[in-house]
Design brief:
Elements (H helix, E strand, L loop, with lengths): L2 H7 L7 H136 L3 H17 L1
Length: about 170
């Protein structure tokens, strides 16, 4: 069978003019009805859909800008916090150094004061010891002199000689 034979057997493959007219008429009627009743709602729905997509894109862009702004603010706050931390650490170190220096100074002054007190105590004890020694030497000297005088003045003649010598000495002065 050739192509002409197939076309003759199937009327849809070789349409007649009447079928073309009726098909065209049905198409135009459906087109008119769609334009009259469905075209505007479809276009409105597409327009609304396009608008909602655009709003979503705008919102996403705005959110992205806000995120960038927040990120910049966060970095700024982080940098400020780091600067504040560094400042506090520096102040802490300075305060520690000042406290240590003050403690050293106080310790040195206290040491010097204690040394002065110790020197004074040593001097006072030395003077007390010297005074004690002088007193003991004087006591011993008096005891020795007393013993010597007792021995020297044990006889009457020695006493007279001593009195005479003292009177001569007093008269000469």
């Amino acid at each position: 069978m050739n192509i002409h034979g197939v076309l003759l057997l199937n009327p849809l493959l070789s349409p007649s003019y009447g079928l073309i007219v009726w098909t065209l008429l049905a198409f135009l009627t459906i087109l008119f009805l769609l334009k009259k009743f469905a075209w505007k709602p479809i276009l409105n729905a597409l327009s609304e859909r396009e608008e909602s997509i655009q709003n979503a894109l705008d919102s996403a862009k705005k959110a992205k800008e806000e995120m960038a702004s927040l990120q910049a603010d966060n970095e700024k706050i982080l940098n400020e916090a780091k600067a504040e931390r560094d400042k506090l650490l520096k102040e802490g170190r300075e305060m520690k150094d000042a406290i240590i220096a003050e403690a050293k100074s106080k310790a040195q002054k206290e040491g010097e004061r204690l040394m002065a007190i110790s020197r004074e105590n040593i001097h006072n004890e030395k003077m007390a010891a010297i005074t004690e020694l002088k007193n003991q030497v004087a006591t011993l000297s008096l005891e020795i002199a007393e013993r010597i005088l007792k021995e020297e003045l044990s006889s009457q003649e020695k006493q007279k000689t001593l009195v005479k010598a003292l009177l001569d000495d007093v008269n000469l002065n």
